[in-house]
Amino acid sequence: MKKGKLHYGWVVISMGLLTTIAAHGFGRMAYTIILPAMKDGLHFDYTQLGLLGTGNFIGYLTMAIIGGFLAARFGTRIVITLALVLMGITMILTGLAETFGFAFAMRLMTGLGNGASYVPAMALGSAWFSMERRGFATGIVSAGIGAGTLISGLVVPPILEAFGPEGWRISWYILGGAVILISGVVFLFVRSRPEERGLLPVGVKEKG
Prior knowledge:
Layout: H1 8-42, H2 46-74, H3 76-94, H4 100-128, H5 134-163, H6 167-189
Helix pairs in contact: 1-2, 1-3, 1-4, 1-5, 1-6, 2-3, 2-4, 3-4, 3-6, 4-5, 5-6
């Protein structure tokens, strides 16, 4: 690679950051902000709200366990993209919920997408960066959790206020649409390994 040219690994790791913003910040953390309005809109009790959170966590944990295997089998780019699409669609459908059963199913599937996208995204640092720089790269990806939570905290409350009783639905529509948009960007730019672009990992020098 020519000196002075940005290594593609930095592009890939920025896509990992976007993935965690979508997966954790929008798909998981935004729920706590939307929760009170959703409770009032659907007349759920706190037990039901807790079960919705549990369903999301079960989905996340399930795919967190096998997400790495799926990425190794089908490719990181494909798994992350499909997982984000699943998340985006089920988040939008959460906004259409009228019953507890439907809302639970959507939160469960959002959790599946969350886990299936987060684990491969975290592995991008190991694939694209040298041993000495992997910690830094992984830290960038992990920063998406806080960044996504912050963005949700800034965006959702004004939506809830502007749209009144329907604000929680609009919030899910907007966040879900954003996740689908991010999935398209990730598909365009993520590559599983540097070899796919004829590169060495960031920080690894060519021999000779």
